[in-house]
Structures are given as structure tokens and as C-alpha cells.
Amino acid sequence: MSLSGTHKLILTIGSVARTHKLILTIGSVAIIGGIGFTVNAHSHPATTKQSQVINLSAGSEIMSLDPAKMTDSVSNSQVTQVDEGLYRLNSQSQPVNALATKTTVTNGGHTYTIQLRHDARWSNGNKVTAHDFVYSWRRTLDPKNKSEFTYVFTNIKNADAIAAGKKKPSTLGVKANGDHQLTITLSKPVAYFKKILAVSTFYPVNQNAVNKYGKKYGTSAATTVYNGPFTLTGWTGTNNTWTLKKNPAYYDHKLVKLHQINYQVIKSNTTAYNLYQSNKLDSVTLNGEQSVQNKNNQELKTLAGGQISFIQYNHHDHVAANRELRTALSLAINRSQLTNKVLENGSLPAKSFGVRNMAKNPKTGTDFVNDATVDGTVNYNLNQARAAYHKAQQQLGKKSLTLTITCGDDDNSHQVAEFIQGQLTSHLPGLKVTIKAMPFTAMLGKVSKGAFQLNLTSWSMDFADPSQSLTILTGDSNSNMGHYQSKAYDQAMQAADGPDALNATKRYQDLVQAAKTALTDQAVTPLYEGRSHLLVKSHLKGVIYNNFSGAANYRTAYVK
């Protein structure tokens, strides 16, 4: 979930995104670091009730099957099907036992003692043990392996120092007590630590396999071993097709009904949609036009994306730093029109700097985004927008203003940027807005150096907790590329993950206060919660879709 070092921003505005990467494009479905992937069409024959075989596709190639090396959504989605960690997230985004059987938290939340299953095995016949977790985590944090996801370990004792090359991996706060007990020591208590441990970066790795294949480990199906419901075959490291097969060594293999999942890379949404219609695929992600065409289709599903899309401001820019101007821009944008008429993919207007199902009020059960809303900050109100704009003109001493929006150079990014451009210039007299589109790598370089005024971006979260989005606005966050600074905001966030970390009610109140502060300051302008529309064949049952991220898990899926 951050941009550089800490949380990866995804400057992708348009549909579901899922990694902590700043993706400077708007539109495609990307899910990394957490849990999710794009399901499209496939050219294999249609499934039958007897076959227990389904056909899907991915939007891009697998890059790696190594938890320490993977950075893309497709790789992550495959690893979550063929491997398991201590916990998995259920449909309600809550951690449940996978390889763990019992967890004991002591020492004021600083120590986790976890008992492991005795019957878990790797596909090479080796037992899955506590030593595999210790080896995997140390390996990921070792600077020589250049993992991009070391930030998720930050709460474990010495993790940051190891990633920075200041301490040896052997000093990490994790220890194997025999084969089936793992002890983790934290640098500070973390309320959502079990959710973090469900992230694929924390999966174990078989040391014997890594020693055998060396640098080739995870670069092909044949140079990887698996401990999950499926094994992966047919991927050479460069090809566009592969197959997941039921893993006979999996401890719960009797639960797994699907025998095979056939994948093919299909980058054309039109091709995927046509294959779905001809019964040659079992699921397809829809674009806006297709969503409208299928609004009454019983096979239509709307999936959350765990993603908030927003306008990021350069607070070092004299014009963009004006709060009245930022407020005017926010109030001049009709978010309902953006989601319903432009995106048309199930995305929802943003209420706060977060998404639904991140957290619920411990006392009332109210969703976090409802508690964290401030009137006059993200609601469409032209009278208030023009009043704020007039104040900004007076404060800046200018009757006419020019703003530049940086965005990705793909079609969808440009479409959203043009919508915002039209809203602002038509609703705020004297305002001129230009669009500066550029390729992802160029945009990332510009934004990270502060060479921007406004830019369209989105943040995709690893797991369901408000801190996953709010952290990027803290003063010391590497992902705070707009350089927003607020003592009140930082104090609330420090309290949430400090003295109030293990008090659910107080922590929740701290996070709500931080979110309200950001809205009042218009630190960023939230636009919409990324979601996607999906068609799934009626004969495909038992797929678990996470209500926060939309991630699909096929462990319990079957064909009926």
C-alpha cells in the first residue's frame, strides 16, 4: 500500500486495484500486496457439471511465484491459490486459521505465540514447519533480496533495521520453538496484526527448494513448490497460459472440489467478454458499457476493491496549498455523475478518505466512512463551492486561476481527468484546468519529486483497517508525496497506533478524528471507492469473495 518504501500508491483511477503501489493510470483492475486479481475470459471449452474444471484469464503475465519477489497483482493472486500462510481472510475480511491452530497474545500485545498444524506438507513432500516461516521472513527482509514489501514487517522487532542493512536478518523478532510453534515479538502492539499476517508476503518458503533452485526459485512452475489447495503447472516463466491443479498433498484436500483451473492471459476486455458470452469462460470483468448492458443480468456481481481514488495536491505549490481552493474543487465535483455516468463499473462516491467495510464502530456498528464524514467537504454543492472559490481568489489575489492535473496516459485515465476538468471549469468561473498525461514511469518520477500541482491517484489497501489509507497522510510517510502537514492529524494517528492501539473504542475514535481532520483540511480530495462489475457463470458455486477487497478464493469453489 505504498508508493516508495512504505506504502505503494496505485495511481490507477477507474476500477479495482489491490497492491500498495502508486499506480499512475486510471482504469484497469490491479490488485497486489493484498488479495485479488482480475478475472476475465478464457478460450478453453466451457465447463460441465461433471468436470470440476473452470476457465479464467488474467490481465497480464505472472512475474514471480516467490513471496519475496512478487510485486504484481496476477502473481499475488496465483500465490494465494497455491500457498497458505498462518491465516487467511474470510469473506468479512477477518483472519481465520490456515496453518495456525491456536494463537496466544501476551506481554501487553508484544508477543504472539502461534501453534501450527502438524499435517501440512509442501508439494515436494517436506513438512511445513515454523522454521519455514522464520526462513521466509528473514529472506524477504535481507537487503540483498531487494524485496519491495519489507514495509509490511515494520511492527516486528528489528524488521526496519534489517531492511535498512543495519542489523542482521537473524535478529528479527521471530523464533521457531521446534517444528510447530512460532513466537513473534513486536516492537509495539498492533490491533490488526493477525490481518497483516494473512498477507501473502508473510507466507512460508521451503528452504530446501530455494537451495535447490537458487535464483530460479519462483521463476517457473517447475522451480517452485506449493503448500496450498492447488499446485501450478505449465508456466515456463514467459508463457501466457498455466493451470492450477488440485494439490493431493494439501492437508484439507477433501474440501477442495475443483480439479483444475485453466488460465490464459487476455488483455482485451472485448475478447474476454465475447468468450464469456460464447460459454468459453466462467467469469469476466466488465467495462462501463458492458456493465450497463448487463445491469439486469442475474450473473452480475459487484465486487469491492479496497481502493480509494482521490486528487492529491502539492502542498508546496502556492496555489494548490490554498485550502479554500481545494475545498471549492471538491464541492464542485459531482461524484455520483462520475461513478454512474463515466465509470459505470459499480464504483461508489467517496464519503471520506477510506472505503466501506474497513471497520465498524465498536459501539454502534456504523461503518467507518459514515462516522468519518464531514459536511461541506466531499458533497456536491455549487453554492458552497463558488463561495469557497471566491475566498481563494481573494486570498491569492487573482481573478483567474490555472491548474494542471497530472494523470496517466491511458484512455480511462484521460476520460476521468476530462470529466473533472469539465466539472471544474464549468462550475468555477475564471478557472482554467489543463491535463498533463504521461506514461506511468515518467509520472511516478515527477510525482515523487514533487513536480506536480494536482494529480489523480488511488490507494489500494492490503487489508481492512482505516490506518491502511490514513497512514499515507502522516507527516513522516514516504507516500505523503503532497507533503500535507498537520500536528492534529499526526497526533490522532500516533494515539491510534500507540497508547490506544489495544483499546478498540479509543482507537476507532482516534482514526475517525484523523479522517475528519484530513477532510476539513482537504488534505486530499476523495473521489470514489473503486469497485468492479463481474459476470460469473451460474454453475460456478462456492467462490469466496472478500467484502473489502473483492478478492476471489477458489479453495471451496465447485461446479454444479
Put the structure in a nutshell:
With 560 residues, this protein is α+β, with helices and mostly antiparallel strands.
Basic shape:
globular
Instruction: Bin the helical content.
Output: 25-40%
Query: What's the alpha carbon Rg, rounded to whole Å?
Result: 23 Å
Number of strands: 21
Report low-confidence residues grouped into runs of 5 or more.
Answer: 1-49
Span between termini: 37 Å
**Average pLDDT:** 90
Structural class label: alpha+beta
Count helical runs.
16
Q: Which strand-content bin applies to the residues? A: 15-25%
Q: What does the main sheet amount to?
A: 7 strands, mixed
List keywords for this structure.
single chain, alpha+beta, seven-stranded mixed sheet, 560 residues, four-stranded mixed sheet
Description:
Strands 11, 12, 13, 14, 15, 16 and 17 form a seven-stranded mixed sheet that branches. 55% of the residues are buried. It contains 16 helices and 21 strands. With 560 residues, the protein is of the alpha+beta class. The N terminus is likely disordered. Strand 19 and strand 20 form a beta hairpin. Helix 8 packs antiparallel against helix 11 and helix 15 packs antiparallel against helix 16. The longest helix is centred in the last third of the chain and has 18 residues.
